[in-house]
Amino acid sequence: MNTIHFQTFLKSVSPGERFSCSLGVDTAIRIEYKPVKKYHEEVGYINKTSSTVYEQLIVVKNSRSDAALITIKQQVPRSTDEKIKVRV
Q1: Pfam families annotated for this entry (predicted)?
Q2: What's CA 84's distance to the chain center, in Å?
């Protein structure tokens, strides 16, 4: 059994209210970012349309016997040009 001792300051929290508290890195959970794959395609002779697809694979491995709730946050590109469309 592992024992963790730490000190932190928490803002006031009411009973039943949710709050976050980081306990650090869990070495039993591994996250692996596979290399990004890029596909490019151009279609049309007069009105050419160019399309580029980026594919990102994220592999999460849990070596614990019990399930773990995790949240993965990834930045998504945005366009300021209305001719460029970003789909997720």
Answers
A1: DUF4139
A2: 23
Residue with tokens 């928490």: 10
Residue 85 inside a domain? The answer is no
Domain range for residue 41?
29-62
pLDDT at 74: 86
CA pair distance 79, 63, nearest whole angstrom: 39
Q: Does the residue 34 lie in any domain?
A: yes
| The amino acid at 27 | T
Please check whether residue 36 is in contact with residue 56, taking contact to mean a CB–CB distance below 8 angstroms: yes
Please give the span between the terminal C-alpha atoms of the chain, in angstroms, as a whole number.
Answer: 42
Q: How many CA atoms lie within 13 A of 32 on its CB side?
A: 7
Q: For residue 10, tell me if it sits in a domain.
A: no
